[in-house]
Write a structure and sequence with these properties.
Mean pLDDT of chain A: 89
Helix content of chain A: over 70%
Number of helices of chain B: 13
Strand content of chain A: under 5%
Number of domains of chain B: 1
Strand order of the largest sheet of chain A: 1-2
Number of helices of chain A: 14
CATH architecture of chain B: Orthogonal Bundle
Radius of gyration of chain A: 23 Å
Strand content of chain B: under 5%
Number of strands of chain B: 0
Shape of chain B: globular
Structural class of chain B: mainly alpha
Largest interface: A-B, 51 and 51 residues
Order of helices and strands of chain A: EHHHHHHHHHHHHHEH
Mean pLDDT of chain B: 88
Distance between the termini of chain B: 65 Å
Number of strands of chain A: 2
Structural class of chain A: mainly alpha
Oligomer: heterodimer
Low-confidence stretches of chain A: 357-363
């Protein structure tokens, strides 16, 4: 008796709908075992991870704040992945956006620059993120270099550039030698939505991005081309779609969104430029994109869910001394289960009995 | 002279983890599987390798721990990408994300601990020859093993029947299947070999390169190993050249920082990553005539029965 994979005649829509839920369920079961191995009470740990953050207003706002960059980056990545272009360097584009936008904030610091500062920062950050993403895209289209490897290498480069700037030319002279810029001026800060709260304008921008992506993919020719190039490259070639142009376009858009997310994070919740502004948003966003099945509403929900794991992880660390790395393990396991469950949309398991087949063949 | 010898020694040390990890990935990719999780398997290998050596006091057992950890990680990949026919790029990314988290969790217990690093060979007389003595006869076991490994892989791929079958699976899985070869089983073995090598390469870092473990100590070496396989056009001979070239870039930028060339250290540190991008572009460009990659690299194969 043997368990083998068999292609379904057509994709299963039922499984497509429930597969993220199965994946989350399996992940929680696995995490329960992991908590038990770590010697923590699994029920209390799960409560700290998934329930506690939902019970107070501050944490709820914090979830929305953390989900903001995740959703923005993941929407961009979903365009790339739909077009079968593998941008995995969103973390680098996020950092470059943060650096480029901060440049205006640092240069106008202490001057009487007006309300133009923040919009200019946002535009410059998006442009810088797009340009940075265009490097791997152009290397791919012009020279055939693997965009996976080049986009990832540029993450390390962006990280080092940021490190150099905050330790060198941009360091706050009154910052006791800490590697950080001075706090941004009010005109260079993303305004809060609720006075004294945490929620900021960036969350609204993220929602607009979700809506714009839904319109692009669902209602425009370009969106149709993106989907066809990814799903059926041969058909796209016969249709005369320019696949290279779409790689450039999707990389530029996802880079711009990652860059925008970067400056919003720096000019919003963080308030200044420093190393470690991202707990791996660019990589977690890859999980968000897949968990959301590359669909805009799905990504919004998945972004909120993964933000919950960030906040829950912090609370579990404080309350139960559970190491922060558990959150990364959780996210990795979740991505595995999501991918595995998605496989069942196209395939199904079948039991085969080799002996009986042989017997039938002989008879 | 002293300095030249010191530089050659440190280049060899910096190249060895790249060479071991890339050798494993080369075999995996020749079988037609693209495992992007090298970085994740390496970092788990580093944490487990250090843990094994720290607990037992034996570098050899540490290395074994690294190999086993890397192999187990690669089995997760095989189960997903081969067993469940999941997209290999996404699975490899997931493996790296999981590996980074797992290594932090495993390594948390012994951050700040130190071990006695792997001993270097010493043959009286031979090792004391100026300039070449220590380079040829004064390395640690990992360096010699890495060279034996790549020679062994070359011999296996090009001089044995099994190697020919493995390459056939990578170049045309449908034909290999039609000829009756168990494509998925062969690919699983190739993936496991890649995992074992990545685990060993990761273990090399805390066992021989620096005698302690720090989270994230692989610092992208797994990704550079992946780029090296492309650099080498999937050929073992060129892989050796590529690994030592990259080791040299890493060491030269370190020395340049020491000499105080006046360029900020971060720019020098970025050199290996930028060099990877430039090399990928130049090589891919030179190969416009036709790709040398295994023909079915990274594609899903579900045998029909």
């Amino acid at each position: 008796m043997q368990l083998v994979l068999e292609k379904r005649a057509e994709r299963s829509n039922t499984i497509a709908l429930v597969s993220p839920l199965i994946a989350i369920g399996l992940t929680i079961v696995t995490m329960t075992i992991l908590f038990a191995i770590l010697g923590k009470n699994p029920l209390l740990a799960l409560q700290a991870y998934f329930i506690a953050p939902l019970t107070d207003g501050y944490s709820l706002q914090e979830i929305a704040v953390k989900a903001t960059p995740l959703v923005m980056i993941a929407i961009g990545l979903s365009l790339c992945y739909l077009a079968n272009a593998w941008n995995i360097g969103a973390e680098g584009q996020f950092l470059i956006g943060a650096v480029a936008g901060s440049w205006i904030a640092v240069k106008t610091q202490g001057t009487d620059a007006g309300a133009w500062v923040l919009p200019a920062m946002l535009v410059l950050a998006a442009a810088a993120g797009a340009l940075y993403a265009l490097i791997p895209a152009i290397c791919k289209v012009k020279f055939g270099a693997s965009e996976i490897l080049t986009s990832l290498m540029l993450v390390y480069v962006a990280d080092l550039l940021l490190d150099y700037l905050v330790r060198g030319p941009w360091r706050d002279p009154n910052g006791f030698n800490f590697p950080t810029t001075a706090e941004f001026d009010p005109v260079a800060t993303v305004p809060l939505l609720i006075e004294g709260g945490r929620l900021h304008l960036g969350s609204i921008i993220a929602l607009l991005v979700v809506a714009a992506a839904a319109i692009l993919l669902g209602r425009t020719i370009k969106g149709f081309e993106i989907r066809v190039v990814g799903a059926a490259p041969r058909a796209a070639r016969f249709g005369g779609f320019n696949a290279n142009q779409l790689i450039i376009l999707t990389f530029a858009v996802s880079g711009a969104l990652a860059g925008l997310a970067g400056i919003i994070e720096v000019a919003g919740p963080v308030g200044h430029l420093q190393p470690g502004i991202s707990p791996g948003y660019g990589f977690t966003a890859i999980i968000v994109a897949f968990l959301g099945r590359l669909n805009q509403i799905g990504i919004l929900i998945a972004g909120l869910f993964l933000a919950l794991t960030f906040i829950g992880g912090e609370q579990a660390q404080i309350a139960m001394k559970i190491p922060l790395d558990v959150t990364k393990v959780f996210q990795g396991i979740l991505l595995f289960y999501v991918l595995a469950c998605d496989s069942l949309i196209l395939y199904r398991f079948k039991l085969v009995f080799p002996n009986r087949q042989v017997a039938r063949g002989a008879g | 002279m002293e300095l030249v010898e010191a530089i050659i020694l440190s280049v060899l040390a910096a190249s060895t983890p790249l060479l071991i990890a890339a050798t494993g990935e080369l075999v995996t990719e020749r079988a037609g599987v693209l495992n992007l999780g090298v970085e994740g398997m390496m970092i788990v290998g580093a944490a487990c390798g250090f843990g094994g050596a720290w607990l037992t006091g034996s570098i050899f057992i540490g290395a074994l721990f690294g190999i086993v950890a890397g192999t187990l990680m690669s089995l997760i990949f095989a189960l997903m990408a081969l067993g469940l026919a999941v997209n290999q790029v996404a699975t490899g990314l997931a493996l790296t994300i999981l590996g980074v988290g797992l290594s932090g969790l495993i390594g948390a217990g012994f951050v700040g601990e130190r071990i006695t690093p792997a001993t270097h060979l010493h043959i009286p007389g031979l090792t004391d020859i100026p300039l070449v003595g220590r380079v040829l006869f004064g390395e640690d076991a990992f360096v010699y093993f890495s060279i034996a490994l790549i020679i062994g892989v070359w011999w296996f791929l090009y001089r044995t029947r099994a190697g020919l079958i493995l390459r056939a699976c990578g170049d045309n899985h449908v034909s290999a299947h039609a000829l009756g070869y168990p494509v998925l089983r062969i690919r699983t073995l190739a993936v496991m070999f890649g995992g074992a090598c990545a685990g060993l390469a990761g273990a090399y870092l805390p066992l021989a390169y620096t005698p302690f473990f720090i989270p994230g100590m692989t610092a992208g070496r797994g990704w550079i190993a992946l780029a090296l396989v492309v650099f080498a056009s999937w050929r073992p001979g060129r892989l050796v050249i590529g690994a030592y070239l990259f080791g040299a870039v890493t060491i030269l930028q370190l020395h340049a920082q020491g000499w105080g060339v006046g360029i900020p250290s971060q720019f020098m540190s970025a050199l290996p990553y930028l060099a990877t991008v430039i090399v990928l572009v130049l090589l891919s460009r030179a190969r416009t005539g036709g790709s040398t990659a295994p023909a079915t690299l990274g594609t899903v194969f579900v045998p029909d029965r």
